[in-house]
Write a structure and sequence with these properties.
Layout (H helix, E strand, L loop, with lengths): L2 H13 L4 E4 L10 H10 L3 E6 L6 H10 L3 E6 L4 H8 L4 H13 L4 E7 L7 H11 L3 E6 L5 H4 L1 H4 L3 H18 L4 E5 L2 H4 L15 E2 L5 E2 L5 H4 L11 H7 L1 H4 L17 H4 L4 H8 L15 H11 L16
Parallel strand pairs: 1-2, 2-3, 3-4, 4-5, 5-6
Antiparallel strand pairs: 7-8
Bound molecules: FE2/S2 (inorganic) cluster.
Length: 325
């Protein structure tokens, strides 16, 4: 989409009540006109957060983005040890991230770090929290891997065992006591290990929408395969119609689509039946209960994977692109 088309999307988004946008990717800094999109969002009254690897963020670029109305930045981190971080990322990016964090702090923007946690870094959680402190983060999101997309493809290499997760959870509690008020720690629960479905996206078509670089509008960033060719596009329809009327956004909205055990479950208004993308990825049917839920008839396969993780040998990572050296 052109920057003019993005500008129009931002204005339409504001009209339907959107208050915050995450400019994410891939890597949003690859767009040279990113500042124009930020300007459009900010002028429409939408809070803008840049979600970035930090690679490609230099002082002049950040200055332009801040001038355009950028309000906060979230940086992804993989590990506090540069070598381990680069092995997980498959790219030499640690120094660029460190530099980006310094620039964001110098610009006085709120800084969040997002660390996706898994078998190769859960035991290094202390270091990630300390990294957040030393880089001046306001918030560190400790996000246990959710297994779809590339994570599903890498599941054998990433899935932790229960004791590893228990150790990490305990460390988070200790850090929360120590850090009270200084830095926010968010723990995104490991749904496979806990056997508890997450209230994914706050419910399908409930509080959030994604517009992809080609204009495809989706109820969640991972829903491309699930929605398939039915996905509406902002080039063909107004965002208000997409949000309110389109089949894609209404398919799993509310509770009418639910089957048992969700339909009569007392948690259906809390977890909304779990994650539609995960139900689709693991069963081929997005209307089934999320198999991560211990009440799902499909949960046995998830439990067997977690039970086997302690004795399994972690495989090698499969990268999107061959690691750069
Ligand atoms: Fe798409 Fe959960 S990731 S609904």
């Amino acid at each position: 989409m052109t920057s003019a088309q993005w500008g129009d999307v931002m204005r339409q988004a504001a009209d339907i009540g959107v208050v915050q946008t995450h400019l994410s990717g891939g890597e949003p800094l690859l767009r040279r006109d990113l500042h124009e999109i930020v300007t459009a969002a900010d002028s429409a009254g939408i809070h803008t957060q840049l979600v970035t690897s930090g690679v490609g963020l230099h002082e002049a670029r950040l200055e332009v983005l801040v001038g355009a109305g950028l309000r906060s930045v979230q940086l992804s981190v993989q590990h506090a040890d540069p070598e381990s971080a680069e092995l997980i990322a498959g790219a030499r990016a640690f120094t660029a991230k460190e530099k980006a964090a310094g620039l964001v702090r110098a610009a006085d923007l709120p800084l969040g770090l997002n660390a996706v946690l898994h078998r190769a870094n859960l035991d290094a959680l202390d270091g990630i929290v300390e990294l957040g402190l030393s880089w001046g983060a306001d918030r560190v999101e400790l996000a246990n891997t959710q297994f779809y997309g590339w994570a599903l493809r890498n599941r054998d290499a990433l899935l932790p065992d229960r004791t590893q997760v228990a150790r990490a959870r305990e460390r988070v509690e200790r850090w929360r006591e120590r850090l009270a008020g200084r830095m926010e720690l968010v723990w995104v629960a490991p749904d496979y290990v806990d056997g508890i479905a997450k209230p994914c996206m706050g419910g399908w078509g409930s509080i959030s929408l994604t517009v992809a670089p080609d204009g495809t509008a989706l109820p969640c960033p991972a829903a491309g395969e699930l929605v398939g060719p039915d996905a509406p596009n902002v080039k063909d329809h107004r965002l208000g119609w997409i949000w309110r009327e389109s089949a894609a956004f209404n398919r799993y909205r509310g509770q009418g689509w639910m089957r048992e055990p969700c339909r009569s479950c007392e948690l259906r208004t809390v977890d909304f039946g779990g994650c539609r993308c995960q139900a689709y990825a693991l069963t081929g049917d997005a209307s089934r209960t999320d198999p991560a839920c211990h009440r799902s008839p499909d949960h046995g396969a998830v439990r067997a994977l977690v039970d086997g993780a302690a004795s399994a040998t972690a495989g090698d990572f499969v990268y999107r692109a061959p690691p750069k050296t």
